[in-house]
Each structure stands twice: as C-alpha cells, then as structure tokens.
Amino acid sequence: METISKAIKKKDHDSKISGQALYADDYVMNGMLYGRLLGSSKARARITAIIIPDLPEGYLVVDKYDVPGTNRVQIIQDDTPVFAEETVEFVGDPILMVVGPEYNKVESILENIVVLYEELVPTFNMRKADTVFFDYHYAKGDFDKAQDEADHIFEETFQTGHQEHAYLETQGIIAYPHAGRMVIRGSMQCPYYVHTAVTKALGYDARNVQVIQETTGGGFGGKEDFPSILACQTAAAALKTNRPVKVIFNRREDMAFTSKRHPSVCTYKVAVKDNMITGMGIDLILNGGAYTTHSSVVLQRALISSSGVYKIDNLRVAGRAVKTNMVPSGAYRGFGSPQTIFALEMMMDHVARKLGTESLEFKEKHMVKQGDTTATSGKHHFHVPLPEMIQRINELTDYPAKRKRYSRQSGRYRRGMGLALSFHGCGFTGSAEGEHIKPVVRIRKAADDQVEILTGNTDMGQGLKTTFCKIVGETLGIPFEQVLIENPDTDRVPDSGPTVASRSIMIVGSLLQQAAEKLRQIWQTGEEQIVEEHYVEPKFIIPFDLERFRGDAYPTYSWAVNAVEVEIDTLTAETRILGAWGIYDVGVPIDLNIIQGQMQGGLLQGIGYAAMEKIDYNAQGIIRNNNFSDYSIPTAMDVPNLVTEVINNPYTHGPYGAKGAGELSFAGAAPAYVEALENALGVDLNKVPFTMEDTMGVLREVHHHD
Amino acid sequence: MVNGYQARSLQEALDILSSEAVIPYSGGTDLMKKANGNATYLFLNKVPEMKNIREDRKYIRIGAGCTFTEIIESELTPAILKEAAALVAAPAIRNLGTVGGNICNGSPKADCALIFFVTDSKLRLVSKKGERVIPISEFYLGRNHTILQKDELLVEIFMNKTGFENYCYKKVGARKALTMSRVSFAAILNMADGKITQCMIAFGAVGEVILRRKEIDDMLIGRTIPEARAVKENYLAAYEQAINPVQGRISAEYKKTVCMNLLGDFLDSKGI
Amino acid sequence: MISFMLNGTKVVSTARANEPLLNVLRNEFHLSGVKCGCNEGECGACAVILDGRLANSCMVALGSIQGSKVITIEGYRTTERFTVLDMAYASVGAVQCGFCIPGMILASECILAKNPNPTRAEIQAGISGNLCRCTGYNAIVAAIGIAAKEGQGLW
C-alpha cells in the first residue's frame, strides 16, 4: 500500500459527528422569509389563469414576472424556465413561489391558490415520444458486414427505471441581497454552475453574484443541476422582497419534483461468428423528462460506454434522449453508463447461454486489454487489470463452482450467483476539460505558513476535503493539519470545474499536486504566497471529435468486478442478499477508508436500483410513492457485510497514481444482481428494477409450465 | 391554551374524552405522520392502567398503551406476538408506537392486530358509562373504521395464556426493516389425541380488514391428519375464494399468490 | 406549557402540545444537530433519546413528553461514551455526508446501552431505522463494533 493511502481522520469528521456542522436548513438570518413553490398539478397544460387570494401583510407571490434577467435556467441549454411561462410540462413544474415570515402561513396560502389549466395531451411513454432532445450515433468497423458473415444474430431489448438519489439532506437554498449583490448559500455540488445560472436569471454582472456551498448532505448527481434551478427561483424572491429567503424542500417535494436517473430502453443486436462476438448494433432511448438539463452529456456517456469492457470490432451505436412529461431526468452516479452496462452485461450473459458457454468465460474471451482500441476508436493506453480482478473475486466468492451448483435447484429457497464486469471513463467526456471547463486551482500560503486550498470543488460527503488536503500536504511535506480547506465561496475560489464525473481527484487533484510542487520549490517561510495552476490536456490523449464520436472519450478508465449472491424464497418471492462483492481499480486510493466508503456506498445504491427502488407514476403523471415509506431504499438489515477491495494499478497521470472512483462502484451491482436471479430462477431476465412482484411473475410462469 | 390534555389516570382520560373534542394519542406514530396543526390530542402515553402487561386466571392482559418494544421485552407475551412486534418499522418507532394504536388505527396491514386476530383475542373497551369486552373480529367495520365510540378507549387486550406455541408467522415487506406488510400471514394448528383441535389462520393487507375466516378453518377441526388431507382441496378452494386483495400499488395477483403459497406450505408442514 | 428535561436541564416549551418535538428542538431550543430528513418517521435523522430509548422526534408531539428526559446529540457529545463512538467512527471513516450521523450516534448509544457486546445482526437491527445513503452501512456497523470493544465497562 502506498503511504498516501493510509486512512486518516477526515477533515469534516469532528464537526459532523458532533452535530455542529451547519447545513442549509440550520441557518437562520434576521428578517428571513420562507419560501415554498407551487408546482403544476398537470403533466402538460396551458396555464389559463392563476387566482391568488388576498395575501396577508408581509406575504408575496414571486413568479416569472419577477425574474429580472432571463426567465431561464442556464444548465447546458436554457430550456428550463425559472418559473413556468405559458405552459407546464410535468407535474411539479414550478409556477410560482409564496414567501413570507411564517412557513405554515406560506403553506396555507399555497393551498388556496387556484391555477386554471387547459390540459394538453401528455407523453409518458419514451418509445412514443415525438420530441427528440438529442440524437447521436457513431460506428466503428463494419457492422453490416459482421451481420452478413455471422453464424448467429441475437437481438434483445432491456429496460431500466427511474432512480431517486435519496440523499438524506433535501434540496435547500438561501438567497439574500447584500450591498447590491446577490448571495446564494446552500446545498450543492457545483457552486459555479449556480453562479452562472443566477447571473443570467437576474441579469446581473457576474461580479455581483456570490455563491457559497454549505455543508451538503449527499449529492450523487442530484445536486448537480437542480440547485441552479432552485437558486434562480430563490434569488428572484430575495430580490423582490429585499430580504433573505430560505427554501428547504420537504421530502415529498424532493422526491416528486427533483431530478432522477434516466429510465432507458436499449436494444442490442449481436453478431456471432465462431462463438465470438464480431459486431454489435446498439440502440438506446433515454427518457429525458420535461427539460434537457444534462440529457445530452448523459446520453453521450451512455453510448460511449455501451460496449463496456469488451473489444467489439464492428459497432453501430445510436441513441436518443427524448422528451416526456415527467420530472426532468438528470445526473446520477454513473451518468448514463449504468443503463447501457446493465443491458450489455445481460446481453453477454444471454448470448453466452445461447451458445452453451458459461457467462464469465464468454465475457473473459472478449475483454479489452492495454493497446486495444476503444468503442470510439481511441486507445486503452494503460494496463487493464480485469484478469487479476476476476481471479481475486473467484477466490473470494467461489463463483464458478457456486454458479454451477445453483443452476439446478428445487425446494423453497433457491440461490443464485451473478457477476458483472464494468468500467467508468474517468472525468468529463471528450475534450470538455480543455475546451470548456478550463479548470483553475489556487493554493495560498499565509504568513503563518498555513496553507489553504482554493478550488470550486465541493465535499458532499465523498471526502474531497480530506483527499485534497492529503495530496497538498504530502506534496509540500507538511502535516495534514497545516493544510486548510473551506466550503467553496465563489468570491474566494477560482472555477476549478464542477464536482462531477469522477473528475475531482484525477483532474483537480492533479492540478493541486502540481501547484503544491511549485509552492514547495518557492516556499518562503513567514511570507504570504499564492500559486495558481491551469489545466493542460495530457499529451498522450487522442483528441476527441464529438461530431463523429472519435478519439479518446476519456484519458483512462477505472475498472470493476462485482458479484452478488442471492437467495429467493419461492413462496413469497422475497430475495435475500447473501453476499455482495466488489473488486475495484481506482489507481491508487488517496485514502483507503474514503475509497472503501465510496465503493460500499455505490454498491449498495446499485443493489437498491436493481432490487427495490421503483418510481411509481400513475396515469396522470404523478409520482405516487414520493416518500421513504413507499420508495424503499436499503436499510442496514437489507445487506450483509459488503466485501470490497481495491487492487494496485497506479495511474501515471493522476495525483499519486489516483484516478476516478466515486461512480465506478455503482454500475456492476445491477447486472450482477439480476444475473444472480437468473441463476436461481433458470430464466433470462431483462430489466431493473427487478422487484419481488417480477420474481413472483417468473415463479408463476415456471410453475405453470412444470 | 387548550391544545392537548395529559391524562394521568384512566379515569381522567375518560372524563376528558367524554367532554372534549379530542383525538386519543397513544404512541403518536400514526397521528404524527399526518401532521395536523389543529388537532387537540388526549395524551394517553402516561396512563398507568394502559401500560401494564399482566396475567389473570384466564388471560394475558396487555395494556393498549404498551409499546412494541415493551411487548418484545415482556416475559408474559407469547412468542408469536413478540415476533410480529419485532418486525414493526424500526427501534425508534417501536419505542413509541403501541399495540392499542396498531389496533385502533384500523389498518389491515397492522402487524400486531394480525396476531390478535389469529389468536382470537378480545378487546376491553371502556368509557365513562361502562365497559365491554368483545372479540377483535367484531371490532372492525372497514378500513380505518371501527366500532369504538367517541367516548370510548381500548384499554386492554386479552390473549389466551396458552395454545399459541405451534405457530407460523410471516411478514412480507418491501425490505427487511422500516416496512409495511405487503402481505402478512399467521397460522396456528393444535392437535390432541391425534385430532386437530384448533386451526386458526389470518391474513393481513389483503382487504379492508384483516382476514380471519373461522368457518373455513372449522372444516379441519376434529379431523385426523389424513382426514384433513382429504378435505384439503375444498379447504384451499374456500380460501381461494375468500382472499380478494384490493388492487393497489402492490398487485392483487402477487398478494393472493403469496397468501395461497404460505397457506399451502403451512398445511404441508403439518403433513396435511 | 410543557416542561421536560433537555440534555440534563429542565426546560419549559411554549409551543403547542401538538407540535412535533423535532420542530421544538430545532426552532425553540436551536438544537440544529437534530436533523429533519423526512418528517414522517422513515429515516431516523431526527432521532433523540427519549426516556432512555431511541425515538424519532418528528413522531413525538410535545404534549406527550411532559416530565420526560430528552437527549440530543448536543447533550450526548459531552459524554465519555460519545468520545469512544467518535473515535470508532473516525477510525473507519464512517462519516460521509453527515446528515444521518447525529441520529446514527444516538442509535449506536441505544444499541450499546442495551447490549454492550452486540452481534452484527443486533447492530444492523439497532440502526435499521436510520437510513444512510452514503456508506452502505458497512463502516457504521464496523464502528459500533469497535466502540463496543474499546468502550469496555462504559456501557
């Protein structure tokens, strides 16, 4: 183990464990008003009238007329309105905000506002959607020829569902005018995204907006775009009232009206010759919901990841993100790739079965290795450690033997074992870092020789404050305690890019290491010194052409092998997880505890995604299970000890050998879980979530045929 | 400021209940879910007469105000009740929620109410005017709807002292904790001199009220195992007809399949 | 007026009897360590120790706790037992976003108070009402086990 990997007490440990850390809802300011949003009750409609009752003194309604700049939220595009304009596009689409000194009164005013709608026909079925937000395709080799020459062609369609982030702290923003400027504080992943959006909505000069991240109670992608929307609304309210305004979502609002993982439908057509896959045709639809938010980039990653860890010479890949009248889908750990990796892993498994080979053996025959081309005709520049990872998981789980043993069972309880191979492309897709983000970091040494890290990156629980300080402390050769880091404040920190895409350690951490190295060389005890570092794309990268999806989509990849063992009670279709394992390559862990936490947390989110988390829309487009009682996430009793290990495979261009980690742990869980169900049930399955009811459906079917 | 009454004795509680418009508050875990700023509660959680678990000559008498945790920790409560209480939600709810609330809330999913049904327990209802003891099967009129009068409190539950050892209990939820019953099943079968003396079955979460059909179970009473086997088909057919779950977020088909599977398995386990 | 013992001090609340204890603790007594994750008794972020037992404070009406003892993380963090849990949680990095942690710590205390040497299954059951979306629970379960070992005699 590298020295830097040794776990230490996290920077934010003391304040959090003692309950002293302040989250957005914990701030109370003088004269503060409370805001609540009125969302559309229709999935698609024209607003014909809004009838507002007489408001008591001190209470106000804020709507599209109160947005002084542009009534649009700048995300990637700007189709998301701050407040609804002529139409509403999903149930919950924000129409207005009521603000006032007492939350209960605000709530009762809200209940008495009447919105008249002229209803329009909504679209909920992504396969029948007529608005295509984004449409991408790319190819490699000649898939037509591969089909012509194939011994077999297999085709199958797979589906994945919505997933709620379910961070424990709901969305929350405070906005207040201060000295002619607007200050935003709150729960968020990307202060500079919020900064850009609020600047545009208010029509302010960028210098007059200040965004400060408060302690953030979990994100997982869910606080990537949504805080920009809420911040624009809250800022408009603060401007109109000239008072601080606080908006904290209750759990039901948060679950019903904020972004989710994109549901998908994905069809794989596979050409096989001599028992080897020679080509794949992949067609993906992502349900983007009502507005585009992050759908373009989610779709890109989903498509680029769609042939996963396999070397497929002839590829034809196409995908669309379409509009439906559902809550806008957005970023969520894995960012599109879990959807295609699920479909791919199941397809590999099914093709293997049809060819009479064992799933893992078949997958192993197709794995990429260093030097191979990627799906986008880029290159796997570095060692691919999958073989040794598979060997390790076999040692830990006895996978091949168990898999065989479980393939023929009778009796009430039936076990199954599944395994999935996955990867995560580290950092932003394509050339975004160099062309759009252009991250900057700063390190400031004070006269007392305390060193402060200044970046726009946020710690939302993933441990970034600790890992950044370790990198800088180690490089400077000074104690961890001598390195300070605060929650980012756009008045104080440069834009080092958002905290997304498993980029923070690899990209920003690298810049910090370089900056620290510079500072070390010019270190003057007792003097204030500032070092700034700008991103330069590594030389080895084959430039990515987004038009053609060609080149290195990612500089490198993190790798994962997951296994899940289940036991099904055939009387009730309840499925118990007997074991869940993950072997991960994240380069060198900057902190072993932190990496273990990321791996285990992501693995369990993935199991939830596969087994129990299901958003239940009714025919009117209303999410019926908008609470923790009806939308179940795993409790401590739903999992055994999660066994996760990291292997040593230093990344030469990452700080101390580190590369992307946070998202990697998610994708393999769902296919491993469903493969385990298949092993137990003896059938092919093709969707997640695969719930108890689904399992019962299979059991009834099997029984029927007995 | 009259927005709540703390009763310190049953008498005081009944006095307030008969004269004021109050909502009886036992553990609060169902009431507080639907936050109601206008509610005036009659707090019963410190009424000693409702907190006891004791035995008399005939019954185990469980105070309606006993929390699920108190049920689990008591030496007197039967294992079948403890098992159901231990599967309610999670500790921080089990420490508040009470068996009385579980019954009076009127949900067909109520975990402990199922056990009181399958054990043919009785409820002691008390008002200022007097009291009555009724079988739990007569308590419910429908979902969230009971015969409890406005001035009446459920004070105790009477369970027989023996006869519940040979039980089977199964709760099926969305996950292993913090979950409501999607289907629940409880069954007791006792034999004496080679004949079935008691067969008691109850299903939760499959209708407006917990399902307990004595007349069907009576088909097996007085029979030997082989004799019971001979009527098994009719017995199962009767339940097949009796179980008609309401279509909700959980499919009726799923619920019914689980019910019949669990019932069939229970009979199998007894050699029937 | 409801009076109760809050973190060892007698207090009187002027809030309505039907007010959730969670709101009273946060708004009237400014105990912001008590977190609101769902307000429906489904997540455990607002858990406190009420008369020696773990309770979700969103599910408790103020009027029901006349004369009761309430301990929140603000009171508990001054104890020796907290220090043991604090070190145990730190040693495995069990604190990520931190939002579930005050409730989780109080749940840990209640597990160990009842059983100083809990099994893994007992620990899992003891925190089963405290949702955590970050850790996968491994580190938290491990931390409670470590605290049990390190805190010999304290519980």
TrEMBL record, chain A:
Indicate what this protein is called per its UniProt record: Aldehyde oxidase
Tell me the cofactors it needs. Answer: Mo-molybdopterin cytosine dinucleotide
Q: Which GO terms describe its molecular function?
A: iron ion binding; oxidoreductase activity
Q: Which Pfam families match?
A: Ald_Xan_dh_C, MoCoBD_1, MoCoBD_2
InterPro entries from the UniProt entry: Ald_Oxase/Xan_DH_a/b, Ald_Oxase/Xan_DH_a/b_sf, Ald_Oxase/xanthine_DH-like, AldOxase/xan_DH_MoCoBD1, AldOxase/xan_DH_MoCoBD2, AldOxase/xan_DH_Mopterin-bd_sf
Source organism per UniProt: Acetobacterium bakii
Q: Does the keyword Oxidoreductase apply?
A: yes
The chain positions of domain Aldehyde oxidase/xanthine dehydrogenase a/b hammerhead read 18-121
From TrEMBL, chain B:
UniProt entry keywords in alphabetical sequence: Flavoprotein, Oxidoreductase
Q: Which GO terms describe its molecular function?
A: FAD binding; oxidoreductase activity
* Superkingdom of source: Bacteria
Q: Which InterPro entries match?
A: CO_DH_flav_C (IPR005107), CO_DH_flav_C_dom_sf (IPR036683), Diverse_Substr_Oxidored (IPR051312), FAD-bd_PCMH (IPR016166), FAD-bd_PCMH-like_sf (IPR036318), FAD-bd_PCMH_sub2 (IPR016169), Mopterin_DH_FAD-bd (IPR002346)
All residue ranges annotated as the FAD-binding PCMH-type domain in the record: 1-164
For this protein, the record's PROSITE patterns field holds: FAD_PCMH
Read off the SMART domains from this record. CO_deh_flav_C (SM01092)
Query: A Pfam family for this UniProt protein?
Result: FAD_binding_5
Keyword hit for Acetylation: no
User: What name goes with this protein?
Assistant: Molybdopterin dehydrogenase
Provide the species name: Acetobacterium bakii
Provide the organism lineage as a comma list. Answer: Bacteria, Bacillati, Bacillota, Clostridia, Eubacteriales
Automatic annotation (TrEMBL), chain C:
Q: Name one Pfam family in it.
A: Fer2_2
One function term, GO molecular function aspect? metal ion binding
- Say which domain of life the source belongs to: Bacteria
Gene3D superfamilies the UniProt entry points to? 3.10.20.30, [2Fe-2S]-binding domain
Enumerate the UniProt keywords alphabetically.
Answer: 2Fe-2S, Iron, Iron-sulfur, Metal-binding, Oxidoreductase
What PROSITE patterns does UniProt report for this protein, alphabetically? 2FE2S_FER_1, 2FE2S_FER_2
Q: Which residues form the 2Fe-2S ferredoxin-type domain?
A: 1-76
Q: InterPro entries attached here? A: 2Fe-2S-bd, 2Fe-2S-bd_dom_sf, 2Fe-2S_ferredoxin-like_sf, 2Fe-2S_ferredoxin-type, 2Fe2S_fd_BS, Beta-grasp_dom_sf, Diverse_Oxidoreductases
According to UniProt, the name of this protein is: Ferredoxin
Q: Does the keyword Metal-binding apply?
A: yes
| Listed PANTHER family | OXIDOREDUCTASE WITH IRON-SULFUR SUBUNIT (PTHR44379), XANTHINE DEHYDROGENASE IRON-SULFUR-BINDING SUBUNIT XDHC-RELATED (PTHR44379:SF8)
